[in-house]
Please model this.
Amino acid sequence: MEFKYKKIGIVAKPHEDVVFYLKKTIKILTELKVEFNLEKTAADLIGKKSKISRDKISEISDLIILIGGDGTFLSVASFAVKSRIPVAGFNLGTLGFLTELKKENLEKSLKKLLEGNFKISERKLLEVEFRGEKSIALNDVVISKGNIARIIKLKLEINNDEVTEISSDGLIIATPTGSTAYSLSAGGPILTPEVNGIVVTPICAHSLTFRPFVIPDNSSIKVTLVSDMANVFVTMDGQKVIPLKHGESVSIKTYDKKLKMIISDKINYFELLSEKLNWGI
Model:
């Protein structure tokens, strides 16, 4: 049988609950005579050996199959988008906004995936420039304080215009995909993936009049730490954390490539929201 995707990279959450589904995935791919490679963490879970790291698996694959939760998905996204390959996530986490394929349908779904019979949603990412280095975030960039009781002051600029100096616990800059993550819990709005916008959400703002807002996704954003204090951090997708010092700035804009994310063809985005957020219950 001829499949659209011929070289599969397998990535898994490092948890014992994954082992059954990981072994099942390998069995199915083997029976279908499809070439696959295990990322090191996935190999370790089942007593196999692999030297392929998570940042290299996408370079030798034309499709990533991920078994885990949204955190695992986020750890792969920045590498997959650079290699321009799609990611299919089977959910073994909790909410699973990114890993929306159901593990119960693994066997049936895998064959459909290989044939290319799933929908692909192209998701925008953020490019973060800090200290001369660039990083990528699918969900959000968070500037926040560590374990301290004092609020911090941040200067927010958009398209080189100063917007305000905000006193708060921090600030979230989120993509439409990330609007259902930390930004949502901080009171930010939900954006459907197709919206050409970026969400700016304060975390526990000292001023009750400073509310979350949405700006065009061709905007450039700059956040500067005004407070002279330690224990302030820049966090990208909850994966990469860097200390931010007094007077330092973080520049954020939309990344020039989009992530190819395989989504369920059985459920639309609003049904997904209703299922994950328990609407109507």
Observations:
- The two ends are 45 Å apart (CA to CA).
- Helices lie at 19-31, 40-45, 70-83, 106-115, 182-185, 269-277.
